[in-house]
């Protein structure tokens, strides 16, 4: 649980950094490629030093291609269509996707976790932002594409860890293949669809370095490690904990407007849904 809380705080800044310094200013495909390549560099020493079975490497690469590569392609495009708070709020359906996907793969149905996920959606909806933009519905669909990719990657990684093919104590040695898969998506996407819109100042480069080395390089490893240690219900709910955290960062640092009463009420419901998922055990 500590891993998920820590990464939530870390990623809370990412939404605003992308929306303020990169969206519409730096080519989205170049930003994705840079972020993935930098994250791979973080794990490259272990990737080269500790060889693993080809089957396991392919599974990790496939998960990275979906959870990080494809998700980022949707995610960065959404900032061209929506405001930062709207992007945050449109992630509200991720908990439901996680709960349903996990239960389908496990051959079961957990109504308690689905209820918790639904409560998390309601909580996030209460914290929704303002009037729709002209590209509102297109932006909504793009964010849902990102949500589905992120949910599928988390569920897939959790299931892979439960199968025991990748010992939990050695996750850091194997995780580089996750970024290899993401790079195999990001590189051709940038080559085919990218434009010559590169960072023009030190601030934009610094943001990309932070997002690549820390938010992606460390963040996705810690998040997936945390996902493998908690129940599917807790994982689902924690996906929406990022919403109030991101909105608060957007409000406090960049002085963007937010309804504090809605934010507080939504946060209380979110905490209640997290409580419903106790205890955080392997499921």
Give an overview in words.
The chain has helices at residues 2-22, 28-49, 54-78, 84-89, 94-106, 111-126, 136-162, 171-174, 176-193, 202-216, 219-227, 232-252, 260-276. It has one domain (1-277). With 283 residues, the chain is mainly α. Helix content is 76%, strand content 0%. The chain contains 13 helices and no strands.
Amount of beta strand:
under 5%
Helix run count: 13
Q: How would you state the average pLDDT, rounded?
A: 81
End-to-end gap: 14 Å
Instruction: Tell the overall outline.
Output: globular
Outline of the structure:
The chain has 283 residues and is an all-alpha fold. It has 13 helices and no strands. Helix content is 76%, strand content 0%.
Which tags fit this structure?
single chain; 283 residues; mainly alpha; 13 helices; 76% helix; membrane
SSE arrangement:
Layout: H1 2-22, H2 28-49, H3 54-78, H4 84-89, H5 94-106, H6 111-126, H7 136-162, H8 171-174, H9 176-193, H10 202-216, H11 219-227, H12 232-252, H13 260-276
Keywords: Membrane, Transmembrane, Transmembrane helix
InterPro entries: EmrE-like (IPR037185)
Protein name: Drug/metabolite transporter superfamily permease
């Amino acid at each position: 649980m500590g891993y998920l809380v820590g990464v939530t705080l870390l990623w809370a800044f990412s939404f605003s950094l992308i929306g303020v310094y990169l969206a519409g200013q730096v080519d989205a495909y170049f930003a994705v490629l840079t972020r993935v390549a930098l994250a791979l560099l973080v794990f490259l020493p272990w990737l080269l030093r500790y060889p693993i079975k080809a089957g396991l490497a392919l599974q990790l690469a496939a998960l990275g291609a979906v959870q990080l590569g494809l998700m980022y392609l949707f995610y960065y495009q959404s900032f061209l269509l929506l405001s930062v708070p709207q992007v945050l709020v449109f992630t509200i359906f991720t908990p439901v996707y996680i709960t349903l996907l996990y239960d389908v793969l496990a051959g079961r149905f957990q109504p308690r976790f689905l209820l918790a996920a639904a409560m998390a959606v309601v909580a996030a909806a209460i914290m929704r932002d303002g009037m729709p933009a002209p590209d509102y519905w297109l932006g909504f669909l793009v964010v849902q594409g990102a949500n589905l990719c992120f949910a599928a990657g988390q569920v897939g990684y959790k299931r892979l860890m439960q199968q025991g093919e990748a010992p939990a104590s050695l996750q850091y040695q194997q995780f580089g293949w996750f970024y290899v898969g993401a790079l195999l998506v990001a590189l051709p996407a940038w080559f085919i669809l990218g434009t010559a819109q590169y960072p023009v100042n030190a601030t934009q480069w610094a943001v990309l370095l932070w997002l690549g080395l820390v938010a992606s390089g460390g963040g996705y490893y810690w998040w997936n490690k945390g996902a493998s240690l908690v129940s599917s219900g807790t994982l689902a709910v924690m996906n929406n904990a990022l919403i109030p955290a991101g909105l608060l960062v957007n409000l406090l640092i960049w002085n963007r407007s937010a309804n504090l009463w809605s934010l507080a009420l939504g946060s209380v419901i979110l905490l209640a849904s997290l409580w419903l998922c106790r205890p955080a055990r392997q499921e």
